[in-house]
Amino acid sequence: MKIVSRNEELLRDALSCIPQPSSRTSLASCNKLIRFEDISAAAFKIQCGVQKTPCMYSRLSKQYGMDIYLKKEFLQYTGSVKERGVLYLLMSLPQEQQRKGVIVASDSNFSMAVAYHASELRIPVFVIVPTSTAPARVKMCREYGAMVISYGATAKDSQLHARRLAQENGYLYLEEEDSAVYLSGLGTVGLEMYEQVPKLDAVIFPAGGHCGLLAGSAAALKHLNPHISVIGVESESFPVLQQSLKAGHPTDDQACNNHHFYGDVSAVCFGSNSLQLTGKLVDKVVAVREEDILISMLRLLEYERATVDAEGAIGLAALVGGKLPELKGKRVAVVICSGNLELHLLQQCIARALTLDNRVCRFSLVISDCPGDMSKLLEILAREEARVLDIRQERTFVTSELFAVKVTCTVETRDKIHTAQLRNALLERYPTAAWTER
């Protein structure tokens, strides 16, 4: 079998040929890209292979003045919504190709989903990753059942090697794109949410470059109820979807940050099918700050006991950042789509979020190096109910006065109001106290 880079040719027997959309902007013409029947077929076919994740009422509702329901896709086996599209994609492959195997070249959620579900379907699967890939990711893919090969210093090197192996051995090289089959699998999220939460007013999805979840789910939701608002959220640092919609085609000139914190949020838009569906079915696309993403991760951890990454938290970040005031008093569902964050990075994110949320603060002051002065400072902190996280003393380089000590203290408070109260109490006793701005 000839190996090609696009799945549509190999999958032409799985779905009928998808016609090109006409210039009309009606829902009917747009849904020719993927039909509602395709999404329904996908839901039936993958129901035994993926979790029907809960869409639960959140305690965050009162805090943000609306009924918030969280679709917890991070509870999938590999921690990502990508499993839906991947499983349907693999199940739709011809038997001959399933026998030969598939190959992917990245350490993304998509690759982990391919590794797991290909192994479950007894399809040989190979994952090629750069040598700089985190050991935990490599270990995870191997535990899912894939043959993992570290090759090259960059992602491009790994991709070229994977393509070469595919040509030489008859593997199908898979990359995350917007084939009708993949979008239909992802669209089952919208189908489930409509069934789980009656009378929805709006649904919020992560967007960014890989907007297949947004596009596929929008097709399902708008077919079932055109009055449901479908909203996409991306990072202000990487507004690739907004730029692509404005240009009318996928853009590839956006400088993307390769930091693992962003993951697929910062990826380049990968296909015209998703872009066309998004342009015609999605009501609004908003961009959020990194600070709001971090605070959303903190809110989900505290209120929902959900450990998620930037892609998983970015939908809620639109509410945290006040980007959607028109949803006040409405019934809103938010997709929490991914929970794959490296442990060391999770620790950094939570620490930074606590600072941004005015719950960890630092101040410095100079006191006399006499018995009892440090006790007086600690008494003030105890009276104000501030929890001391760290306290350091510096004597050698204090030049303000002789026999003085500079004290730098990091404390935890309840909230912004509590922080302000503590600051006033300290300034009253120590007028020269200096606060470290976040």
Explain how this protein is built:
The protein has 18 helices and 14 strands. The protein is α/β, with parallel strands linked by helices and 438 residues long. It has three domains: 36-80 and 180-353, Rossmann fold, CATH 3.40.50; 84-174, Rossmann fold, CATH 3.40.50; 358-436, 2-Layer Sandwich (Alpha-Beta Plaits). The strands form three sheets. Strands 1-2-10-7-8-9 form a six-stranded mixed β-sheet, with helices on both faces. Helix 8 (135-144) links the parallel strand 4 (125-129) and strand 5 (147-150). Helix 5 (82-91) packs across helix 7 (109-120). The protein is globular, with a radius of gyration of 25 Å. 45% of the residues are buried.
Classification by helices and strands: alpha/beta
Strands, total number? 14
What is the overall pLDDT average?
88
CATH-scheme architecture of the largest domain: 3-Layer(aba) Sandwich
